[in-house]
Design goal:
By secondary structure, the protein is an alpha+beta fold. The chain is built from 2 helices and 3 strands.
């Protein structure tokens, strides 16, 4: 089973990487980009075959290591 985790900064948390990308896009002539938020995607290949067990395990991984719960939110996608 494959797990895909999307990690993004929470609303209200400053995103200097996003601001840098927004500025660079403007410099390249891409006007009209009002905001950029930078995130990350983590893909895991899991041996687990039970969807709920996999979701529970990945959720624990996110809470313990993959996401900074103070400043980031995450979503989990599972594929069989």
């Amino acid at each position: 089973m494959k797990a895909r985790i999307h990690v993004m900064l929470k609303n209200g948390v400053l995103d200097p990487q996003g601001k840098a990308v927004q500025h660079a896009l403007g410099s390249l002539g891409f006007d009209g980009v009002n905001e950029v938020r930078q995130g990350k995607i983590i893909e895991l290949e899991l041996a687990e075959t039970d969807t709920e067990a996999a979701r529970s395990s990945v959720d624990e991984m996110c809470r313990k290591l993959l996401a900074n719960m103070v400043i980031e939110n995450y979503t989990i996608e599972l594929e069989s």
